Amino acid sequence: MGTRKVLVTGCSSGIGLAVAVRLAKDELRRFKVVATMRDLDRREALERAAGETLNRSLEIRQLDATCEDSIRECVNSLPDRRVDVLVNNAGVGMIGPLECQSVSAIQELFNTNFFGLVRLVKELLPDMKRHQSGHIVVMSSVLGIQGLLFNDAYAASKFAVEGFCESLAVQAMKFNVKMTLVEPGPVVTEFEQKGYEEAEKMDLSETDEETARIFRQIYLPYSRKIFNSVGQTPEEVAEVTNSPADCVQNPPFRHQTNRFYMPLTAMKHADPTGRLPIEAFYKMIFQHDRMFNASLSILRILHRRLGKGTA
Length: 311
Ligand SMILES: NC(=O)c1ccc[n+]([C@@H]2O[C@H](COP(=O)([O-])OP(=O)(O)OC[C@H]3O[C@@H](n4cnc5c(N)ncnc54)[C@H](OP(=O)(O)O)[C@@H]3O)[C@@H](O)[C@H]2O)c1
Hints:
Elements: E1 4-8, H1 14-24, E2 31-37, H2 44-50, E3 58-62, H3 68-76, E4 85-88, H4 103-113, H5 115-131, E5 134-139, H6 152-174, E6 177-183, H7 190-201, H8 209-230, H9 234-246, E7 254-256, H10 262-270, H11 275-287, H12 289-306
Parallel strand pairs: 1-2, 1-4, 2-3, 4-5, 5-6, 6-7
NADP nicotinamide-adenine-dinucleotide phosphate binds next to helix 1 and helix 7.
């Protein structure tokens, strides 16, 4: 098999940047990477990380996942519009009490996280079907499997991504097009940082005092502890993401990147009534917080000893 052309979205930072660079630096030189970002003024970090691969195995192009014209222009600018692998990574986060989030802000979130994927797949899938080959790798999240307190809209956008891909995968298979959902747990990127900064500034006056207290005094400190204890680096996630991208014959449909998170997602499948994960989360957060904190400390030690949570 010759060189495969990989288009990655959201490469100005975090996971997208790490995935693009890792593929471009592949020792066997199997990939030509089209690393895209919505704002080319943010290209410096990628250029630095790409080093010698820049304009050799990695080229940078503009692509805004919320704009069909921008996607079409980018794809049309590629020789024969060829994309063998799409890594749909661009995404935004949102945390906080629902009463403090406007419907238009939630629509914006879906516009990137879900409709961005829809736009890219609509643009690329017909060509892949015609060529009877291709691979669509989608950056989902463990929150696409299991919801989480104060992540209502974000988790919903990733659930939408999961349902979309799960449905499409069967048709895609008929045309020899592979699909893979990558499901990271917490990853230490700008995503997390932006989330906390926005949370600090958030106007909580639209919600009641108790909810505001739970968000500020329980959720935010817990969330920080979780990121510190079991958070992966973007490079660790890139390593896992690139293995399905490498895997030409039989890539997995789902790929959770963090083994420390697996017991939480497994609860969902263990109890069809749905009580188990909801009650477990409730008890962990509101009743057994000391035990939860102790478990996090143990996980932090394990995480350091075993290195990474990479599955
Ligand atoms: N970090 C985590 O804990 C975590 C966990 C699970 C899943 N994920 C998922 O991983 C993906 C990457 O997130 P990250 O952690 O690497 O965060 P990040 O560092 O904030 O990167 C997000 C990337 O998406 C880009 N983006 C946002 N809106 C876009 C648009 N309309 N068009 C094109 N690009 C756009 C951003 O570009 P700008 O620089 O222009 O904003 C940035 O390059 C997301 O889909 C996220 O949901 C993250």
